Amino acid sequence: MKIIRFLLISTICVSSITAANAQSFFSFSTGISTDINRNRKSFYQIPVSVQWKPESSTRLPLIFEFDYGIPLITTGSGEAYTLNPQLPEKVTLTESIRASIFTISVGFQINLLNNEKKGRLCLDLFPLALSSQHYKINYKNYDKENYEVLNPDLNRNTGGLAMATALIYNFHKNQDMMAMIRIQSPTFTKKADYPLSYNCIAPLQFTIGYNFYYKK
Q: How many Cβ atoms from other residues are within 10 Å of residue 41's Cβ?
């Protein structure tokens, strides 16, 4: 959070002396995403990111972003117990968690570097983002009739406001091709009433994709 606030202040200062690129575009990118919110379990997604920058004459043109993280399976374990004397008192179950995330963001794009040989470097700042997160839990071979998992993880749907920023590089030989590193804060929401072994996701994404320019 401190990093994002620092980038917000820095970007506003930079924007006063740096002109934004006036081209309008759609962009599509995908890659890999990991959670950096100090979860005991590591969540990974395949992010699909779509950006749209409409035509604008302002120094800070608006940019809209839509991100969906396709969840990859995160595995863990859980202990299940029974009072049936004919069965083992305790068994260890394999736990799987699918954590997906969808975010709609509105922000600004700053043109940091524009060089025909070195390419174009931009900073996207999203002070307003609405994020929805979904956790689907499954215990493999769970005999619910005879065993009970103590303090199990639960399916959970949550959401709230967040902030994000992204650093984008457009390759000099073909500026239609781009690479992006994006970081998003956890959602500003209250903690779950029931103690869980995971927190809200703060995704760090690396994606590669293309820009589709129009009205050049």
A: 15
